[in-house]
């Protein structure tokens, strides 16, 4: 009898903790997008351990880990905590109990941190590996990592970062080609693929399976909720002429300031005005009508590195911060468009912090960014308001060429009638050049 009472007590306690934890999560005031809410927080990243330009996607059954990191600039180091929140395929918080996807209820502190050294700008570098000894993820799907501080038990969100966990239950076979519809042939790339569900049960593919295709891990032009065009035995075929197509755009622009004593390519000037380095990039031009020119870019990502004073071993705490000036030449301001600076360093998001302003004196769109030393990819994205929403165009200022090298990411979600969350059952990366 005592054993039965104790067992029932444990069950009730688990349920109460579950409801308490869920209540705390839903009371968070934050977006499930990649966002930074504190101006002292810089260089927020999440990527596979030991693969700096990899995407934040983790195999549920592997021993691999993701590395989440950020810097706190020029202020007394804070104590930061984190939480992990499960989301549905549309990045809304899932309507499931936290005990269904993680096995922890107490506050989780980010304990791995280190102060910068030999830098003019002082900062503290924080990092966290997922999963870790404190938290283990139980199910696949979309997740958001929330970093925050505690002030009298009030959670102050400082940043959020998306990541995905998948379980390889289906195989994906695909290809990227030039769009074969006449209106798109010169500028668009088409993604065709098949899902081999093998022995995995899917009763109603049209209702249960949802697919998302992304170009270069860009959220603003992803193709979502795609239906199969054909079902045959174990295969779901997705082959459209004009639906899973993407403007090929152009190779990313780039610059490198790992060495502050040398003007590398695309840097016009470097000047130190205590306490900061100031870097002027070469004025960029509108590339809409330029011919295609091949470039070894990294599809919008960036790498932190430094050669200052021979410091190369630990760029995460040895790299300097600098104020970088971006300029896009334009004879007159664009009447119907807003210009944004875009890239992975901006979270692949079109936010106010990356909106550019037109300077009539220089006849340039300009903005300043506080960036950590390294190699950066970037581009200029034009955005206009149409049909009640913002429409982004990655080619309006960059040009578009069918030869452009792009990565395409395919995510396959499944939610059966009996399921209470969206499983991520398949993941595939295709490249427009590499076969």
What's the gist of this structure?
With 435 residues, this protein is mainly beta. Helix content is 8%, strand content 42%.
Describe the 3D structure:
By secondary structure, the chain is mostly beta strands. The protein folds into three domains: 2-166, Immunoglobulin-like (Sandwich); 171-248 and 405-431, Immunoglobulin-like (Sandwich), CATH 2.60.40; 253-393, no CATH class. Helices cover 8% and strands 42% of the residues. The chain is built from three helices and 28 strands. The protein has helices spanning 2-26, 205-208, 315-318; strands at residues 35-36, 41-48, 57-59, 66-73, 81-87, 108-109, 112-115, 123-130, 141-151, 154-166, 171-178, 188-196, 209-215, 230-232, 235-238, 245-247, 253-256, 267-273, 276-281, 302-304, 321-329, 338-342, 357-359, 364-372, 374-386, 389-393, 407-414, 423-431. The strands form six sheets. Strands 1, 3, 5, 6, 9 and 10 form a six-stranded mixed sheet that branches. Strands 11, 12, 14, 15 and 16 form a five-stranded antiparallel sheet that branches. Strands 17, 20, 22, 25 and 26 form a five-stranded antiparallel sheet that branches. A hairpin with a 2-residue loop joins β25 (374-386) and β26. The N and C termini lie far apart (65 Å). The relative contact order is 0.16. The model is unreliable at 1-27 (pLDDT under 50).
């Amino acid at each position: 009898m005592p054993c039965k009472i104790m067992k029932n007590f444990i069950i009730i306690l688990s349920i109460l903790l579950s409801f308490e934890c869920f209540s705390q999560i839903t009371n968070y005031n934050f977006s499930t997008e990649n966002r930074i809410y504190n101006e002292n927080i810089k260089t927020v990243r999440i990527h596979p351990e030991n693969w700096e330009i990899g995407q934040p996607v983790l195999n549920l059954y592997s021993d691999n880990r993701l590395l989440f990191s950020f810097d706190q600039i020029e202020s007394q180091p804070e104590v930061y905590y984190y939480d992990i929140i499960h989301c549905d395929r549309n990045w809304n918080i899932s309507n499931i109990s936290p005990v269904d996807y993680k096995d922890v209820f107490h506050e989780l502190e980010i304990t791995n941190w280190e102060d910068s050294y030999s830098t003019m700008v002082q900062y503290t570098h924080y990092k966290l590996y997922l999963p870790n000894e404190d938290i283990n993820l139980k199910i696949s799907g979309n997740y958001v990592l929330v970093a925050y501080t505690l002030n009298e038990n009030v959670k102050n969100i400082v940043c959020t970062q998306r990541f995905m966990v998948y379980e390889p239950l289906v195989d994906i076979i695909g290809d990227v080609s030039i769009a074969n519809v006449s209106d798109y042939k010169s500028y668009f790339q088409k993604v065709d693929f098949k899902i081999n569900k093998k022995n995995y049960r899917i009763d109603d593919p049209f209702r249960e399976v949802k697919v998302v295709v992304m170009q270069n891990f860009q959220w603003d032009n992803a193709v979502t909720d795609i239906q199969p065009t054909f079902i045959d035995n174990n295969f779901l075929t997705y082959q459209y002429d004009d639906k899973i197509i993407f403007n090929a755009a152009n190779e990313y622009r780039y610059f490198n300031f790992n060495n502050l004593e040398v003007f590398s390519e695309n840097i016009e000037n470097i000047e130190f005005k205590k306490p900061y380095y100031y870097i002027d990039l070469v004025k960029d031009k509108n590339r809409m009508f330029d011919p295609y020119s091949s470039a070894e870019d990294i599809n919008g990502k960036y790498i932190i590195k430094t050669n200052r004073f021979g410091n190369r071993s630990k760029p995460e705490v040895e790299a300097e911060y600098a104020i970088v000036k971006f300029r896009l030449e334009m004879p007159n301001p664009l009447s119907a468009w807003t210009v944004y600076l875009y890239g992975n360093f901006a979270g692949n998001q079109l936010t106010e912090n990356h909106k550019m302003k037109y300077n009539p004196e220089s006849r340039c769109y300009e903005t300043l960014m506080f960036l950590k030393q390294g190699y950066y990819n970037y581009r200029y994205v034009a955005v206009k308001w149409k049909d009640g929403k913002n429409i982004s165009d990655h080619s309006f200022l960059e040009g578009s060429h069918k030869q452009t090298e792009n990565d395409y990411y395919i995510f396959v979600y499944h939610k059966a009638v009996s399921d209470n969350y969206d499983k991520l059952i398949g993941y595939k990366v295709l490249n427009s050049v590499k076969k």
